[in-house]
Amino acid sequence: MQDTQRFDLDDIEPDENPQWIDYVKGVAAEIEAEGVRLSGANLEIESEIPLGGGLSSSASLELAVATALLEIATVTLPKPVIAELCRRAENRYVGVNCGIMDQYAIASCEPNMAMLLDCRTLDVEQVAIPPDLRLLLTDSGVKHRLPVSGYNNRLDECATAVKILAQDAPQLTALRDLSMDVLESQQDQLGDLLYRRCRHVVSEIQRVCNAFAALQAGDLSSLGKLISASHTSLRDDYDVSCDEVDQLVEIADQSPGVLGSRMIGAGFGGCVLSLVESDNIDEAARQVRQKYEDLTGDEPWMHIVQAADPAREIVRAESNESLIQK
Q: Is 239 a catalytic residue?
């Protein structure tokens, strides 16, 4: 099915009911806000991943569009600038108050490497993904739409918690500044819901650091346990999972060679990521597919993924036709 959309740069405004085209329009508007004058372009957009699967499809679209439009305009911008303008496009023109992680990762990733990103300073460290580890994605079949999901509500809850905590600690500007000891001492002041939201964020930051260290040490067992603990926290403290995703995680974790699994993306559906020992990847994928199909009646979309190059121009050799890929 083909969906043809046309728009004029002079007519771009935020929409109260955003559609997929608003990601494209927003990126174009934000590039022009950087002082770049764009020319006309016909863009053909093709994707093979499940929409609403929590696979950063929106950020991928933003970066691909930005890369294409800048290439057509023969303008080069630094990767952090491109990532930031794509984030602004999603904030302003789609209404999702996302951070910069997805956009920055797609702009600056390296093949076969995992990235530790400080979203405040944009400092980056890279670590190799071991060759005996495979990354298996399985789609739960439950699609989320961030503009109408609880994503922004979770951000509001965290912001409310920061305001409460800052009354006694004015130096605290974000939950990343909060220690677990201080959080525990403020549990009564926050109440159960805000306490659990904070506990997820504070513990997740520590899990990320521990996961990076586990990768550096080649400790895949510890890495898998951290991934599973992350899902438990997302499910119980942040309340962004759902029954289908939880069932898929349970099925995956019972499959041979699976070290750990968790939902990915912003939650409320989408895909599950499983860390699998290379020697067991085929059997693990077969069992996950069969058991989830037995449970739901539908064969799930599955894919083995690997860290690749950032968004860039490529050339299809047989036709010399320029393409943009993630």
A: no
